[in-house]
# Entry
Amino acid sequence: MKLFVALLAVGLPVLAAAHSWIVCTDYLENNGWYWDAAKCRAWPRNAQRYNLRDRVFGTSGGYVHRLDDHPELTPLCNDPRDDANGYQLPMAAYYLGQKVVINHPTNNHVSDAQCNMRGRADTENLMFVVDGDEDPCCIDSDKLIQIMDMGVSPYNHGDVHFSDEFLSTYPKPGFQNAPKYCEDPEDAMGTYNFTIPMDMKPGRHTFVWKWIRVPEVNPFTTCWEADVFATKAERDHHYLHTGRTTEDMWDFYEINTIVDGVIVDPVDPVDPIISG
Ligand SMILES: *[C@@H]1O[C@H](CO)[C@@H](O)[C@H](O)[C@H]1NC(C)=O
# Structure
């Protein structure tokens, strides 16, 4: 009995960690290294209830924001839609053509040779928008309209063998775009970007992220609402009105100079004294 209890106590956190979910639905930094809540200006359903902003990134806090492993038994969205009460942490606003950055914890599912992991699989990473105002029944519903295929990360399997250098190079497509994975394989941050289609009808829509790690395990999903505006000017007006920055996302690798894996200050190419 004692052994059983001990196993349970050790086993539960591991079980709770074997999943993933979207933490931020409008993140300011693409391809970033570390999570920074200050860079998140919008959140998925019930983010406050899950304490997504303030808890240590990647820890589940007793809840996991995901589709359960039995989509035939549980709804597509872990939390039912409730726009009036589900957004104590604010809802996203997007504009047509916008590149949106979202992020998620890695939960040990990255192939990176730097920490001797090469065969962690990635199978499918998709973004959908829901046709209509009601949550679709299930992952195969034709109410789910695919708006982006975010690619698949490289990993070794069967006859497929990538070089260690390739498996440790970022950015990557798919789930495993987590440059600091090996520092904390469980709770490291991975980011994706997707684009709001130009032909989307402005208005409030439900967005659904779907990740398949391996075909034998049912997909993981996160659902959220966002107000889609026709232009950036209208989106900016809305964000200003709700106390948020109107900045567009930036790319980590465009604003930082990395030398031998370390961030260095931009080097001035011309020495002003010598060039006189
Ligand atoms: C955005 O995501 C797409 C799809 O995964 C990828 O091909 C592209 O490189 C990403 N863009 C940037 C700037 O990272």
Residues 30-31, 150-151, 171, 173, 193, 251 surround 2-acetamido-2-deoxy-beta-D-glucopyranose (CB under 6 Å). Residues 2-275 form one domain.
